[in-house]
Amino acid sequence: MGEATAAEARPRSQDLDLVGWLVEQLQERINAGEITAGTWLRQAHLAEQLGVSRTPVREALRRLQAMGAVEVIANRGARVRLPSTRDIIEVYELHGVLQGYAGAATAAFITSEQLERLAAAARLFRQVVEDLRTRTLGTAEVQRRWYEANTRFHMVIIEASGNRHLAEVVEGLHRKVPRNLTWIALGNDVRRLEKDAAEHAMILDAITRGDGAAARELLISHARHAGELLIRTVDEIGPGYSPQWR
């Protein structure tokens, strides 16, 4: 989102609604990889970029710290937090349980319209692999399409499960481990993306057949594989990741 657009979209009220909007803006940019792990967040720059004063920015950073997305270091400031190995293990264990539950329910209750949207997302995964292999699109556009496919696929499963509160719980987990880290783990390796696309295709097949037990196991396995890959990626980045400034 550009600076002018952000300024136009912000709430007029300079109160808690504005702080909440700032939290959403910053969290989305972190999740999408626009603000990467290790980036130092300068209050003055963020205030200017988003068209607000420093006070609501300061409060928004405090909320992001409480949510686990940002860490505040004494005499240094705030930076986007790189999740720990324990964070990843715990978050992806929960992802597996929740997605597995949703997949089993979805296999029983999914509508034809929802199934078509799920299939369209699976096709987009395959196209992403081809785009990366042939280099017909830039890396940023390939990443955007993979992010779109992944979001659509898993949100359809959650929606079709019929549990109205599940999306909120899953979104809370995404705040602990930004989605863009998954792309960092997958994005430069066509073989990894092929495996990821194949796993989504298998999940789609199980749901299409109405096999809830298979859908549950495949989604649990999918979450476990993603967590293992992220742990290796975070280990490679290491605790001494180089900071940027925002």
From TrEMBL:
Example GO molecular function: DNA-binding transcription factor activity
Classification via SMART domains: FCD (SM00895), HTH_GNTR (SM00345)
KW GTP-binding (keyword) present: no
Ranges of residues in domain HTH gntR-type: 16-83
Classification via PROSITE patterns: HTH_GNTR (PS50949)
Cross-referenced Pfam families: FCD, GntR
Top-rank taxon: Bacteria
UniProt KW Hydrolase keyword: no
Annotated keywords: DNA-binding, Transcription, Transcription regulation
PANTHER family the record matches: GLUCONATE OPERON TRANSCRIPTIONAL REPRESSOR, TRANSCRIPTIONAL REGULATOR, GNTR FAMILY
Protein name, entry field: GntR family transcriptional regulator
